[in-house]
Amino acid sequence: MPINKIQQVVERISRHDGADFYQSICLALGEVTLADYVFLAKIDQIELKATTLAVAYQDKILNNFSYLLAGTPCNVLAGNELCSHQSNVQALYPDDILLQDMNIEGYVGIPIAAPSGKVEAILVALFETEIADQQPIRALFLLFSGLIKKELEKKKLFEQLQLTNRVIQNSKDAVAICDKHAKIIYVNRSFSSITGYSLEDVLGRNPRILGANKQPPEFYKKMWHEILHHGGWQGEIWNKRKNGSIFPEWLSISAIYDENNEISHFVSFFSDITESKRAEEKIVYQANFDLLTGLANRYLFMSTLQQALNVKQTQQLHLAVFVIDVDLFKEINDSLGHKLGDRLLVKVAQRLQGVISAHDLAARLTGDGFAVLLNNLNDYKEIDHLASEINAAFSFPIEIDQHIIPITVSFGISVAPFNDITAEGLLKKAEQAMVHAKKKQRGSFHYFTQEMQDKAMRRLKLKKELELALQNRRLSVVFQPIVTLKTRTVDKLEALVRWNNNGIWVSPFEFITLAEEFGLINDIGEFVLEQACQQVIELKALGFDHMTINVNRSIHEFSMQSADSNTWLEVIERHQLQPTDICFELTETVLAPEQSGNVEQLTRLQNAGSTIALDDFGTGYSSLSYLRRFPIDFLKIDREFIIEMTNNDDDKVLVATIIAMSKALGMRVVAEGVETKEQLVALELLDCDYIQGYYFSKPLTPEELPLFLKQFNY
């Protein structure tokens, strides 16, 4: 697909939005595809009807119209399938009167679906003559479908806002509207009813006059950050009426944007939730606590446990779960009665609560089954200490009325991260250990299977061996050639780290993941960069003066770079090389919205002369808007897209679209995982810039590399 066509469309639509946008994109697509008609239509899935939003005919805009989908090729699009016919479309759809009236010979159309998969609109090109080549038209339409989808969503949101504005006039919720300076310009009747303030009382004033000063300044700072950066905020807040009384309210604030995408107003809705708050507190307590003992119930225990598991900890052990069962409780309950049995359970709960610390959690899970979540651990000693405390707490009888009841408990212990990473899994393993303890001897405890603990210890052992390997420089680096198709030469290499651990090759995925978890990834990254720099020096000495080596860096390494310096560039300088000798490869996680702070560091690398490559494109945050925000020089298409492109037309179209889009953004493209001649030929025809894969070479050791480069001939 010629780049100038994409640029022509982009240039024409960049100046328009709303209704003008629909007309502009139809005109632009009609111009570059040479279609006689291009139209965009909304789909009514209930009435099975299409209504055009814009119709372009040979650089003119026609009136919109509606038509039934039955018997038309557009009906195929409504089913979320592509539809195109090079010629003879009237014969294929004889019931489509519009095709006959418009004298149409060729048809190309794509569906535009919502995230739910429901088709909301269609984009169609009609030709009065036979279509020479349908594929570029489909690729171009697919490329711009995301942009059209965004405009459709924007229009829908605007319509919803208009409806909301009509509804608020009679809303039972309080409504206040502020200008862009947060000065009140309107309140409804419910606002006055709830707060006691009339419009005259608050006109031109800041809503902070309602403040009850029960939230800290940081609360309001975060609230306004959400409003200004994400368009809105909602939550519970305490405010004050005109008479000075304080009340809880549920507040929702939205920012309203003008046609320039700048905030013009703020709209807030709130309701007095005093009564619902009281009811909610009662419901929350009943939903989270055992009504008999006052301990946490199973729901609260499991949700707290899962939250604890989700929190990253630096300690080797970070929590333990105890599952505790009252020995012979059924016999006690049957002989002394259920009422006394309940009182016994309350006493058991009190003893458990008495031996745990404030940051731990005790719960009643079943009739006589209890659990304890032991948090913030450093080693096994704390677990053993609590186990001894529990045994000691139940080493003497419980006295209820005139009854002296000897009692023991059996319990099992599971430890995270050694036993499991889910709350249900961890609890189940503790239950299994409890059953084992009960069978072995009542009044005892047992850890979940030594085998599982040994597995975790082996993992820690691998971590220590990796630390030693780094200290003793036992890792190695190999280099995979990247072929420039235009010159048919090897001007780039990718550095890949390998680890032979005492004769056993460890998977890079395994030890890289381990390194990221235990904070060793920066050491690996520095080692690979050092080796890459040394290899550049050696290649230059052999006459390969223009070789660039790609070095992979983990997203976890970004946080280790200071704002005013960059150790990566310092390593390059120390080797008396130029930043242009190194290209830094990053995965698509660098494009995640929460990683926007990485733009500055990437820009600093690029400004210094290094290039930036985005690895495994298409597996993560593959968004046009994200790509445009980040300084990317090379885009590497993930091998999964390359594998099937010669067997699957859709994959081939997708690869072609990615290449075209990248070039439109000024990026060069590397195809990864190329293994066959057929794949190579297809990529050459699509104007791909670079090829990497086993078709040309496996990763080579430093010793193998010079000979390969000297003998390379393509």
Write up what this structure looks like.
By secondary structure, the chain is α+β, with helices and mostly antiparallel strands. The protein folds into 4 domains: 3-148, Beta-Lactamase; 171-277, Beta-Lactamase (2-Layer Sandwich); 292-448, Reverse transcriptase/Diguanylate cyclase domain (Alpha-Beta Plaits), CATH 3.30.70.270; 524-709, TIM Barrel. Helices cover 42% and strands 25% of the residues. The protein has an 8-stranded mixed barrel, surrounded by 4 helices. Strand 2 (49-57) and strand 3 form a beta hairpin. Helix 1 (3-13) packs across helix 23 (649-664) and helix 6 (135-167) packs across helix 23. It is globular, with a radius of gyration of 34 Å. The mean pLDDT is 88.
